[in-house]
Amino acid sequence: MKSSLGDAINSNVKIPFHRMLAYASTDAAGNLLYTTVTTFILYYYTDVFGLSVAAAGTILLAARILDAFDAPIWGFIIDHTHTKWGQSRPYWLWMAFPFAIFFILMFWSPDLSATGKFWWGLITYLLFGICYTGVGTPITSILPNLSNNSDERIRLNSTRSIGGMIGYFITATFTLSFVAFFGNNPQSGWRNTALILAVIGFSLLMFAFFDTREINKPKKGISIIKSIKAAKANWPWFILVMVFIFYWLGNASRTSVVVYYTQYNLGHKDFASILNALVMFQIIGMVAIPFLVKKFRKSYVLMAGMFLAAFGQILISLTGHSLIGLSFAWALASIGTGISVTLPFAMLADTVDYGEWRNGIRASGFLTAIGSSFAIKMGSGLGGWAPSVVLAHAGYKAGVVQNAGTLAAIKFSISWLPAIFFIIGGLLILLYVKFERNEKNIRTTLIKRRGELSED
């Protein structure tokens, strides 16, 4: 019964605040670099690096689809990792440096031919994405092993998301100002800004590595076949993966055209920084989650977040040239995205329990890799590509006065396009409700089962 008692004790242990901060620094580092890419890379490619919008869109689509499939590979690797530091934690030590280096190279702006620039963009974007998966997958895979208490997992995840929001706020709000301040021209400005952000991101990941601890450490590796079997009939996991893909489709499509909208539709390019700063309203949604899930089911809270995000995006189409109206709509949508981007990570930890309960296999690396890194990459890649298709079809050309059709395409891409994605994701989460009702019974059964196995 020792294992059973251990599980019961661990389920009630409070995570120290400094350790929660260490966990939060992982998402702060990831967002500091990854958000720079998802928010500005399309604009950087077309208006700074000199690629056509079609070529830039091709890079976003091809690289994201290709490296999305490295997520299960990283999951397998993590499930087979056994070190004195645990399964997930060591990857912040091993992958922090290449993650920072390829981020810098993406914004290096070498003087190449059009073909050379295309391949430089594709290769550096692809390698950065692979490194991001190596850093990002452990962020989610470690959560089921940091605590056995569902409420503690939600607290950890909310704190982590706030850390990610701080990383997002810094890069989304100040990147354009950094570029202007640290360079004599746009190329050197982006290069120097990337260097600074990379150093900060690397340091945060080192802090995370040195101060996190895993309490659940499987004694032996899981075969690839067993990892895949952990997903068999794991319907709550599959539903969450689909919901998260649609969230990232909506989020990437809305953020990738912010600079285009403020520059060409409003004539106030710098207002993009204000809008990006207003994304800090996500913190309201993030902080509210622990309180909301005590009164309502997690699935209902997530659905409400998706619908609120969609409503805010639709409002943007009605604000015209009102900067105040646009700010209100953007902030409202951000509260919804704050809920929508945070809650699925905690719910994924519950689907790991479901997979162990149903199939007898605890494949936290594989399941969370697909549920987080794969969903993020596939959703953000397609979400960044979709507006590029709309703009290319409308005849967008960088740096010139856009015609009415192009302006309408930009407006559609920042309002209705993300709203459609958010609504689909919100409707899909309804399928999760019946599984959530059984979570407490599943957790109780697992604790008893682990105790029986220990006795054998």
From TrEMBL:
Q: Which residues form a coiled coil?
A: none
Pinpoint the Major facilitator superfamily (MFS) profile domain residues: 20-437
Matching Gene3D superfamilies: MFS general substrate transporter like domains (1.20.1250.20)
Q: What keywords appear on the UniProt entry?
A: Membrane, Sugar transport, Transmembrane, Transmembrane helix, Transport
Where is this protein chiefly located?
membrane
Q: Which InterPro entries match?
A: MFS_2, MFS_dom, MFS_trans_sf, Na/Gal_symport
List all membrane-crossing ranges. Answer: 21-45, 51-78, 90-108, 120-143, 164-182, 194-212, 233-251, 271-293, 300-318, 324-348, 414-433
Q: How does it sit in the membrane?
A: Multi-pass membrane protein
The record's section on PANTHER family has:
MAJOR FACILITATOR SUPERFAMILY (MFS) PROFILE DOMAIN-CONTAINING PROTEIN (PTHR11328:SF24), MAJOR FACILITATOR SUPERFAMILY DOMAIN-CONTAINING PROTEIN (PTHR11328)
Q: What is this protein called?
A: Sodium:solute symporter
- Give the organism, scientific name: Lentilactobacillus fungorum
